[in-house]
Design brief:
single chain, about 300 residues, mainly alpha, Formate dehydrogenase/DMSO reductase fold, about 70% helix
Length: about 300
């Protein structure tokens, strides 16, 4: 599949935003967040900004962005519509939390409940996003069982990195949350490696014989391509990346998205005076890594329609 940069930005930015919002809602229930006016306000506004920027960028890939609102009406059958509905729902409790803190400077009581609802809405929205791809049977690479799991873990991992950085910026203790962040990064790394192995071992059940329905008569040879020149399907569905390049990019993802952030967060334990700079470095490298990981997610996926163009 052709990697659309607007969709890559959407899944990266909104994923981090929803992960951050979910952690704020959950940690607030246990009273683990500092009672600092500016920390809570900045964290909430940052999460909503990432979410909004991501959602807006996703409309750039549409042929008619002005009609995007119509997708919300198909929630009974469409995961894209369900994602939109869940995203709109999540804004309500999140905005109530922001207003509650600005007006009353309170995070308990009803605002604690709003935080829980925002966290639930965040997870549901990310899951719906993952199912937009996982439900596409025509792209076998996306139907693997680990796709929704990875979307959720990548969201939590990126959100926890941002939260740790914010805590450091306000000189707040980060030890416990950093341990959680390291654990999530390690689990996500092994899940991603497992996904790549599953992808490499995935059998090819579609070929020119099954695509044309002529397999019962024997080997099918294409005398002439379906089109005399490259068309839209070949551009969007037939994007190819050489295996050697894919392997190099996978290694870069492992280093930038997982290994370096794990090292930087670990060093913040040993050098607390430099913790803020180290966490910023972790977020910077992870941003590069997750952008490449999202690009690979699309570039390595093959639509079965390309079987018509195979000789």
């Amino acid at each position: 599949m052709h990697p659309a940069y607007s969709v890559i930005f959407f899944t990266t930015a909104s994923g981090a935003g929803y992960g951050l919002l979910a952690l704020l809602g959950i940690l607030n229930i246990g009273n683990y967040l500092p009672h600092d006016k500016w920390f809570f306000l900045i964290a909430l506004v940052l999460s909503l900004s990432l979410i909004t920027a991501g959602l807006l960028s996703s409309t750039f890939h549409l042929g008619h962005p002005e009609r995007a609102w119509r997708a919300l009406t198909q929630w009974q059958t469409s995961w894209l519509s369900r994602e939109g509905v869940a995203a709109m729902f999540t804004y309500v409790p999140a905005c109530v939390m922001v207003l509650g803190w600005i007006i009353e400077e309170q995070t308990d009581g009803v605002y604690m409940v709003m935080g829980l609802l925002a966290a639930i809405g965040s997870f549901v929205t990310v899951y719906c996003t993952s199912m937009i791809y996982a439900s596409l049977k025509a792209i076998p690479a996306w139907t693997l069982s680990l796709v929704p799991v990875l979307y959720l873990f990548l969201s939590i991992a990126s959100g926890s990195l941002v939260l740790v950085t914010l805590l450091c910026a306000f000189s707040i203790e980060i030890l416990e949350l950093s341990k959680f962040c390291l654990l999530v990064l390690i689990i996500t790394m092994f899940l991603k490696i497992k996904y790549w192995k599953m992808l490499d071992l995935m059998p090819t059940n579609t070929n020119i014989e099954t695509a044309t329905g002529l397999g019962s008569i024997g080997k099918v040879n294409v005398l002439e391509k379906p089109h005399t020149s490259e068309n839209y399907l070949q551009q969007e569905m037939g994007y190819q990346i050489a295996r050697k390049h894919a392997e190099k990019l996978r290694k870069i993802v492992l280093i930038t998205l997982f290994i370096l952030p794990i090292i930087f967060i670990g060093l913040s334990f040993l050098f607390p005076t430099n913790a803020f700079l180290l966490t910023i470095a972790a977020v910077a490298t992870a941003t590069i890594g997750i952008s490449i990981e999202r690009w690979l997610f699309f570039a390595e996926a093959k639509h079965v329609v390309m079987s018509y163009y195979e000789s």
